[in-house]
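Course assignment 3, question 2. Fill in each field.
Student: A.L.
Task: Predict the tertiary structure for the chain below.
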Amino acid sequence: MIIAISCDRNFCRMVSDTFGQKETVSVGLISSLRDRHEIASNDVAILDLPYLTPTEITKIPCKVVILTSVPKFEEALKMLKMGIKAYGNRMMHPDNMKQMVTAVRTGQIWLPPDIVSRLITALPADNTPLTLTEELSERETEVAKLVAKGKSNQEIADTLDITVRTVKAHLTSIFSKTGLRDRLALALHFK
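Answer field:
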């Protein structure tokens, strides 16, 4: 179940339109959510940040997604520390919203690409030998190192003079070979 939490009816309607009315429940206030006993751990609560206080977030008994008008790096960090699983723009494309919820349900953290890039570049470099590179081809290693520098798929494609599609294929292979789940895990390992 997807739970849209906002006093903005348009926001709730947008979430409902994205996931379907059978899959979505709209709640105006978090206090109304606490009264519901059928919430499961695989449910996802999509909260509209302007209509809640940060302390309320920690009281939600399922996975929490925060959407805001203008995503900010510092705000994303604060929300992650509070235990949210995703953070993004409240006007994101429905396909991106579906990808976000799928990622959250599978245990991943979802953030906008620019915030992921800033997060990766903010990490200190680690000079530990890279053991995973033995499993990767030379090109996959190049792609992995560029991801660790916070580069987007387009930037990696431009740097290596390949297509974005090829970058995605290399990333799929890298994730398969290493068992890492996402760009952030890859960047953390290569940092």
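Instructor remarks: The mean pLDDT is 82. The beta strands are 2-5, 24-27, 44-48, 63-68, 86-89.
Grade: pending
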